[in-house]
Amino acid sequence: MSRNDICDFLIHFTKGVDLADACETLSKIVHEGTLQGNGRSIRGGYPCICFSEAPLASIQNGLINPDCYSKYSPFGIMIKKEWLFQHGGRPVIYEPDIEFQALPDSHKWRHVRYEPPMIDFSWEREWRIKCDSLQFDMESASIVAPNQFWANHLIQLHDDDQECEVIQYGQILGDTLAQLCCDPFKWNIITLESASCGSSS
């Protein structure tokens, strides 16, 4: 029998001041095919990219804590867990802050402070990979959006960007050749609204 609390995928959720801003951020990430590491919220300042292994069926309202709070938007990049593991990704180590120094230097980037009930981020079910940047493609990743409206908006942002590029290329190559440079949207988009236990398998 399958377990609905276990998932074969990890999601890097984006941030933004609102949904439109977060959607635009995700669109730029997809266009570049790269996630950027950051160490601002990680003890030791190690540059990392963070993911959640929370199954899609359990986060249909986004990655929120028990008080329905989240610093993340419901937009993200979903990566195969095995793929990230092969590239060096690992689950974090939830532990009291005093135990940080007991970790070998090779593992300190995985430390997350855990001192319940006051400090508990285990609801994030976090994984990390220590790197400055991580490239991904359509073979290793999918896009996560809150619903079909925003999925369509992501596609429209891509089409608008392609239209601008065709206009620019057209000034050099001519309209016929410029149209050949147009790249249709090919990414797989999964919406949290329609997520089910089998949608991420």
Give the topology, please.
Blueprint: E1 9-13, H1 19-32, E2 34-36, E3 48-52, E4 76-80, H2 81-86, E5 90-91, E6 93-95, E7 111-113, E8 126-130, E9 133-135, E10 141-145, H3 148-173, H4 175-180, E11 189-191
Parallel strand pairs: 6-7, 10-11
Antiparallel strand pairs: 1-4, 2-9, 3-8, 4-10, 5-8
Helix pairs in contact: 1-3
Would you write up a description of this structure?
With 201 residues, the chain is an alpha+beta fold. It has one domain (9-157, 187-191). 26% of the residues lie in helices and 21% in strands. It is built from 4 helices and 11 strands; from the N terminus they run E-H-E-E-E-H-E-E-E-E-E-E-H-H-E. The chain has helices spanning 19-32, 81-86, 148-173, 175-180; strands at residues 9-13, 34-36, 48-52, 76-80, 90-91, 93-95, 111-113, 126-130, 133-135, 141-145, 189-191. A 4-stranded mixed β-sheet has the order 1-4-10-11. It has a 3-stranded antiparallel β-sheet with strand order 3-8-5, with no helix packed on it. Strands 2-9 form a two-stranded antiparallel ribbon. Helix 1 packs across helix 3 (148-173). The longest helix has 26 residues, at 148-173. It is globular, with a radius of gyration of 19 Å. Mean pLDDT is 90; it is low at 197-201.
Biggest sheet details: 4 strands, mixed
| Count of distinct strands | 11
Distance between the termini: 14 Å
Low-confidence stretches: 197-201
- The overall number of domains is 1
Global shape: globular
Oligomer: single chain
Helix segment count? 4
Radius of gyration: 19 Å
Structural category: alpha+beta
Helix proportion: 25-40%
SSE order, one letter for each helix or strand: EHEEEHEEEEEEHHE
Strand content: 15-25%
The strands making up the biggest β-sheet line up spatially as: 1-4-10-11
Kindly report the average pLDDT value: 90
